[in-house]
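Researcher: We're teaching a course module on how sequence relates to structure. For the next exercise, students receive a sequence and then see the predicted structure as tokens, so they can try to spot secondary structure elements on their own. Here is the exercise chain.
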Amino acid sequence: MLDIKLIRENPDVVRESLRKRNDSTSILDELISLDNRYRQILTQTEELRAELKETSNTLGKIKEKPPALIAEMRELSNRIQAQQSEVTSLDTKVKECLLQIPNIPQASVPEGKSDKDNTVVSQSGTIRQFDFKPLPHWDLGEALGIFDFQRGVKLSGTRFYILKGAGARLERALIAFMLDIHVREHGYTEMYCPYMVKRECMVSSGNLPKFADNLYHDDEDDLWFIPTAEVPLTNLYRGEILEPKTLPLHYVAYTACFRREKMSAGKDTKGIKRGHQFDKVEMYKFVEPDTSNDELEKMLHDATDICVKLDIPYRVIQICTGDLGFNSTKTYDIEMWAPGCEEWLEVSSCSNCGDFQARRANIRYRTESGARPQFMHTLNGSGLALPRVLISVLENYQQADGSITVPEVLRSFMGVDIIKKE
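Model: And here is the predicted structure for the students to work with:
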């Protein structure tokens, strides 16, 4: 969340940020009004407490307690109690409003209203020219017997599917491959995290209250299924102060992810592009503020390195202000080419969140022993997200006979060089 001092002292900075994000909400004006009232009542309450203390001191020096003075103390005490109740209520409302205001985009982020205004930064890899018409992954998967859409729906409903045999092994191979690269070559520490977290974890990561409708929730225990490993990784040090020389911390984690995908009829409904449950390898960093943009560029490299090693064409997108994620100050997306679908598929989103999540989670660090604690910066990025990587592998490596050549880097994980009909 944003620093309340920034909003008090420079509200126009936040107002301009909302304009750039194409956010017409009136929440900022509501917050400013509530905060002004909160500080006014708080000051009045503190003045009443000082008056009560002075009256109490005066009464303590008098042997014969005047009834009028005693009555005055009771009245002051009652007024303080009533005002304190309002202070508490206003403080809660201020914090609720603060949690709904998005992060401020960096000056380098291009201004735009929607994803149509995003900018292609670079494109790499050679798009394969087929001497046959490439099939989309849903046709390939069903013909090979590695997808089962009907039984996925039978088990869990729409937007669920089953990977069978080589399909399941390919998914597992991609996950293991990506984790190994990030750990062995990119220097991340692998983590295995819970798939369900407490409500405060969702608030700290920026998912609540903003995105409650997109999350799965267990009402009885108030546990939330994670939409990404970013959530538990953000909360590893929630409420802690890290000692000097602890930063930077680089983590990578595989998790299943759960989201309520809400789509129009006919939009992205075929195949496995969008589902309520999917797999993802997530990179996460805790860093010092003056290094965070350099760390973002490194994270972007680490994500694109997976595309390079898989030898699949990809492009990097600079996200504009109107399409920027709620937590982010700056974001790059990575898209892989899928020749069967004939589209670029987003497989990663790498973001610098500044101190936005650290403030929500109250995670601080000391630059040196005895120094005043300050908020660190956090970054997150898919490294990469499935099943879209699996889609790109199937469609880019398909052969005329319907078989799939396994990318060289995955063969030791798969145990086969070619996926044929099972």
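Model: If you want an answer key for the exercise: The mean pLDDT is 95. DSSP finds 13 helices and 18 strands in the chain.
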